[in-house]
Amino acid sequence: MTGFDADWLALREPADGRARDAALRDAAAAHCARSPGEGPVHVVDLACGTGSTLRALAPRIARAQVWTLVDHDPKLLDRARIATASTGAPVEVRTLEADLDGGLDAVLAIDAALVATSAFLDLVSDDWIARLARGLAARARPFYAALSVDGRHACEPPDPLDAAVFAAFDAHQRRDKGLGAALGPLAAQAAADRLAEAGHVVRTAPADWVLDAARPGDAALLAPLLDGWVRAVAETGLVPAAALDAWHARRRTELQAGSLRARVGHLDLWATPRAQRAVGSSTSQSTSSPSA
Q1: 117-176: pLDDT as tens digits
Q2: What is the pLDDT of residues 87-111, one digit of tens each?
Q3: What single DSSP character describes residue 176?
Q4: Which 3 state secondary structure label does DSSP give 28?
Q5: Stretch (H or E) spanning 29
Q6: Which of 6, 56, 55 has its CA nearest to residue 26?
Q7: Residue 276 — pLDDT band, cuts 50, 70, 90?
Q8: Three-state secondary-structure class, residue 241
Q9: CA–CA distance from 234 to each of 141, 242, 247, 264 (Å)?
Q10: Rounded CA gap, 102 and 85, in Å?
Q11: What is the 8-class DSSP label of residue 273?
């Protein structure tokens, strides 16, 4: 499976924190806080990276917690174990190195009040999402999935090549990342549909990055974001190299001048088993459309 650099994950975390839909995040946290039982509540975090989901949720769960952080990359698990020590929440952290393809069912079998993930669903296939939905439904597990890209990109000032660049980037996102042909920008809605079919009540909400080169933290994120877009588009061959290089140069000039702004669309998802509705769930499926 495709991995991510820990430095990139650290760069994006502030933008992720701003982007997460507060209502869905807090619904997941409230569900955990009110989970039955006297002991710690258990959360399983799929493809945990360096632990950003834990840092987003744990301080909002007003009780003791046990988190099992699952990833295929032992280096990221080591970083996660260290980085989650400063959350201030009463958290016991366990790590599990696992293959989330062949080992998905075993991971879902871990007894937990919540299964969560961030910035991951767009890397997986429709078959993988179907297996996830069946596994969650079979065990009546709620599911919180944040920050799945949904294909909406916009830059200011606009550029004549934007449409071609972002169309090629979306095509690249649908390549196999190690878990089958990735759904890319279709993943979050596919997950919502699959979970609803399996018997979950599903809510979704936009969770967009809104980046401004005039903000130092955003400028530091925009530089590798631009470079990553260009590398991916170049691999597709869908945009002539000379035109792509010129687009990149124009965008880098705008970045250095502090005039570049970008919106990257994401979708957050909160799903609860229909028979055991949790805090923050509605009585029927409710899927909101992301804003343009």
Answers
A1: 999 999 999 999 999 999 999 999 999 999 999 999 999 999 999 999 999 999 999 999
A2: 767 899 999 999 999 999 999 999 9
A3: B
A4: helix
A5: helix 22-33
A6: 56
A7: low
A8: helix
A9: 40, 10, 12, 19
A10: 30
A11: E
In this structure, what are the phi and psi dihedrals at residue 43, rounded to the nearest 5 degrees?
-125, 135
Half-sphere exposure for 147 (CA within 13 Å, toward CB): 23
Q: How far is CA 244 from CA 74, 79, 232, 238, 249, in A?
A: 36, 35, 11, 10, 9
Instruction: Specify the pairing of strand 209-212 against strand 286-287.
Output: unpaired
For the record, the structure tokens of 181 come out as 């042909």
> Is the previous residue joined to 157 through a cis bond, with omega within 30 degrees of 0?
yes
Both structure tokens of 6 = 């820990």
pTM for the whole thing? 0.91
The CA–CA distances, whole Å, from 218 to 140, 221, 250 equal: 39, 5, 18
String of DSSP letters for 97-143: E--TTTTHHHHHTS--SEEEEES-GGGS-HHHHHHHHHHHHHTT--E
What does each C-alpha distance from 264 to 45, 166, 242 come to in angstroms?
Answer: 24, 11, 25
